[in-house]
Amino acid sequence: MRKSSLRRACAALAAVTSLTLAATACGGTTKKDVKDENTGSAVTGGKADPNAALKKGLTVGFLPKAVNNPYFTSADKGGEKALTELGSKYKEVGPNSATDTSGQVSYVNTLTQQQVNAMAVSAQDPGALCTALKQAMSNKIKVVTYDSDTNPECRNAFVSQASAEDLGRTEVQLLAEQIGYKGEIAILSAAQTATNQNTWIDFMKDELKDPKYKDVKLVKVAYGNDDAQQSFQQTQGLLQEHPNLKGIISPTTVGIKAAAQYLSGSKYKGKVKLTGLGTPNDLRKYVKNGTVDAFELWNPAKLGELAARTAVALASGQITGAEGETFKAGDMGSFTIGKGGVINLGKPTVFDAKNIDQFNF
Ligand code: RAM
Questions:
Q1: What are the chain's domains?
Q2: N or C: which terminal CB in the chain sees fewer CB atoms within 10 Å?
């Protein structure tokens, strides 16, 4: 582009966006990334003031991995409820598929252009959203990841569903008990790039190194992309390829439901064990018909609520995302920001035939 037309394009971009997006693209200066010295997470708002009043009238955009996944419908509803209570506005945007990463990038840019005060993002990929998220932060938008994180420097804080290590290890422990610590097992995951599932799978592999699992062999990690049909077909494929399979771990609500559906209608029902992360409402009938013994999850609505309350605390200056800062999340109580800017929701619940009827989500 010639200099004069570049200047014209830049002026036009600046007029529409009035953002540093234009400044960067056109060679202007942007604020340098500031990282918390101890945690590596982005700190964009100076010092925290724990006594700052919570602001009202903010807009917080929720961007889940995919809008048509019922897990995110529940999570984001929790976010909406909290924002309404706090006198702020909620909006949700997002792709239809958990593998549409470029779609997620566009939605980050849309929220930035709309000048929301904060966004809560469940990232499909740890790195792909980074440039767009940094752009958002340099425009004074607070970025919270929830459910699935990015690289720490691309957000202010991560609201995690539970300790990733705990989740990975306990899923292996649950399945090993069910198969008597012997036999071939497989994992049916979501998207191949998903930060949350990949972190849990790394801990599963590490747990399997313990000598007590010497007779348990992980034969395959399959990916159903959080798509019901693909997850169903992947389960079928796992059993065709590995006829001696004794158990499957599916750390995704979409995957475990599809796998339960497949097993329940097959000769493997009750013989090939299935555990992982699912909602009680999805799996109730498979627990009652003997397809699933036990599985786990947190309450997705509470995760969404905590993401919303974190976003408002950040946008109000109560916290910056640095380790050790504490804030009150309404009726949920007080939370302290841990290493890497991570805020933990709590411990997951294990569901089985004895307790499943006490839960409705
Ligand atoms: C799916 C998504 C989500 C994950 C849950 C357990 O709905 O992959 O990211 O946290 O499962």
A1: 30-161+300-346 (3.40.50.2300), 164-297 (3.40.50.2300)
A2: N
